[in-house]
Design brief:
Organism: Nonomuraea composti
Number of strands: 4
InterPro entries: CMP_dCMP_dom (IPR002125), Cytidine_deaminase-like (IPR016193)
Radius of gyration: 17 Å
Domain CMP/dCMP-type deaminase: 3-120
Protein name: Nucleoside deaminase
Pfam families: dCMP_cyt_deam_1 (PF00383)
Strand order of the largest sheet: 2-1-3-4
Order of helices and strands: HEEHHEHEHH
Largest sheet: 4 strands, mixed
Structural class: alpha+beta
Distance between the termini: 39 Å
């Protein structure tokens, strides 16, 4: 962890505090380019936007996918106040970002929450209908 990493993580934590002060969950993220320039930053706005996907990590991944070429995206670093959730981690992978540095781990975050405050698991069933489901996908990834 470099001094710059710590400085950018502190900014992510500031963004998290700002999100909380604005009535949202306390999470913040920023995206730093290869030259150390802050390219974009955001706080969580899932409550004020009435949008369960308005996580700052997802916002940064979407911004990068829209605004950066693949080579530049691969040389960026996302700094975030907490380890990205599964939804955000998937978006980060698809956006092609080069690195993620986070402050709190998911385990540390969960230890700060009251017991029973998490989201309930949704049962999932599958795979099913292989012969039918493969038709629209087959050949797409070639």
């Amino acid at each position: 962890m470099t001094d710059d990493d710590e400085r950018f993580l502190r900014r992510a934590i500031e963004l998290a505090a700002k999100a909380r002060a604005g009535g949202n969950p306390p999470f913040g993220s920023l995206l730093v380019g290869p030259d150390g320039t802050v390219l974009a930053e955001a706080g969580n706005t899932s409550l004020t936007d009435d949008d369960i996907t308005a996580h700052p990590e997802l916002k940064m991944a979407r911004w990068a996918a829209r605004e950066l070429d693949q080579d530049t995206a691969a040389r960026t670093t996302m700094y975030t106040s907490c380890q990205p959730c599964g939804m955000c981690a998937g978006a980060i992978e698809r956006s092609g970002l080069g690195r993620v540095v986070f402050a709190l781990s998911s385990e540390q975050l969960n230890a700060l929450k009251p017991a029973g405050s998490g989201f309930p698991r949704v049962p999932a069933e599958g795979p099913a209908l292989w012969e039918e489901a493969r038709v629209p996908v087959e050949g797409y990834y070639q």
